[in-house]
Amino acid sequence: MREQIAKLAGCAAAIMLLAGGAQAADKVGVSMPNIKGPWFTPILFGISDDAKKLGYDIIIQDAGGYGNVDKQVSQFSNLVVQQVKAILLDPANPDSFNGAVRQAKAAKIPVVGAGSPVVASSVEADAAASSSHCSIGHELAKGAKSLLPNGGTIAILAGPPGAFWASDRLRCFKEDIANSNLKIVAEQTSEQDAAVALSLANDFLQRFPNVDLLYGADDTYGVGAGRAAQGAQKCGKVKVLFAVLGEAAEEIMRGGCADYVVAQQPVLIGRTGVQLADKVAKGATLDKKLMEIPLIPVTKANLDSIDKPQLQAPKGWTP
Amino acid sequence: MAQISSAQDLGSGAASAAAGPRLRALLQRHGREIVLPLVVAFMILLFSLISDVFFSVPNFRNIGVAAAALACVSFGQTFAIITAGLDLSVGATVALVSILSAFAMRNYGISAGVVAALLTGCAVGLANGLVIAKLKVFPFIATLATMSIISGLALRLSSGVPVTGVPNAFADLAYEVILGIPVPVIIALCVLVVAALILRYTRVGRHIYAIGGNEEAARLSGIAIDRVKLTAYVLSGFCAAVGSIILTARVASGQPSLGTSLPLESVSAVVLGGVSLFGGRGSVIGVAFGVLFVSILSNGLNLLNVSSYTQMMVIGAALIVAVALDQALTRRGK
User: CATH number of B33-328: 3.30.200, 1.10.150, 1.10.1760, 1.10.3470?
Assistant: First the structure.
């Protein structure tokens, strides 16, 4: 028995040693609050694909949710210790990353925003590839106005509690509809989970049966809202508006239960982020530090004509 | 020469035959205390061989800073578990303390924030203790319920968004070192020493063990059960508050969702550290090794780029192995 255990331990150690020894290429670190879902998966696909072309190994650190800010800070520090060539960061909360990003800068490791224009509230990013969350809010407001030209009521699925991207989008959305005849009748934050979003949207439809529009902070919420409208047999009657066009969102739009999506280009964001990181790590001068990736308003009318490879990871791809 | 060798073999054979039962007896008596430090040492050796950055001062500092908050929370959890209880509200307590201390710090300075943090932690612990001792609600249910209440309160008070404006001098504490040791590690070591002294050398410490060992016997011997349980949960809340101070400094803001993984991680660290879930047995030194196990494992797996989903499975499996081992040792000890 003891011999068997010793053999097993020896094998495990040998396999791990081989695995460790095989990593010879330069490494780029990626720190994300989450790696699952239609937003993060395509970003990571873009990063992985271009990193491979540029000859980097990537180390992905997943904090497991927006609530785990402390874990993300720790994981970021782990990347600094590993002396990666650059770190791509989407901070769960930029206020929490001032110290950690300063540590990286002290270790001469560039920090690049990937999906976020900022990496820390008081330390500037070396570069960033992102769509502005406020611009998304403005585009969502345009969508709401075009869907309800004569005004109406809105119920808001506001995103995860404490997520700055969701609050930025909503703040700018609210600014734009402030002087219109669009009125918000309900607003709730919730976990970033399609089932939770579905329950919340169902509750909204029960409480406000005549609500005209459901707003989703991203497509996890949007798909939940679309399915709630579908369940209540109100597709088309209750308009559904949200950001990010993942596969499920596309499917629900084809089914007529999503009306307006502000699509970001997460694959392009990932690709651009890693290209910027490569340039900064090699000491190149950048023309522009912040590469703002354009947004694409999508309705059923233009759904088939948009450039999907920049929006979605290939089917079945996982980080 | 050959004869001498065989005589030596015979001698060593007899010695090892005698050493066998002795080793077994030693393992039965002190197995919980001996096994984990050995496992931790083995992990350090293994990760040092595999990763070229694991065995470095910056990485050990990193592990220390990441482990400090978990250590404080786990030391508090130890008090609750030794009474045969459980404190599942530690994560929510960390979040509430983070929000209230950030508000206090923003408006009245660092000292006010720290006082608010410690008072909040004690108040939550007191509430838990009252529900458990006076209302006779099972600790599992009581702290599960208070977890929900406190978590909702933290989100309500903060409107679900982080509380910013924490003084820079406070946030910098998480990154400062004294004599090469990060400040959060020094704080955790202070909590360790105080918790160890309380459990080992004070009357309340001995009463906590007595209640966990046999509550009825403790009652018959005149121990004020309710008061001791209250104290244990207040200590748990206090330690969670200290952990929250460390985390709040680290994330430089009050976070309403801070510490969500702490209930599982702290219970894992405590049980891995040899504290019996049935109460009455264990030490904070063992728990310190439990914390090291969880933190080194997490750090090592991160350095090896193992996905966080796999890490969750590994920590869950380690917890099951620890509890199963505890059960096996308890059965053998009977």
Answer: 1.10.3470
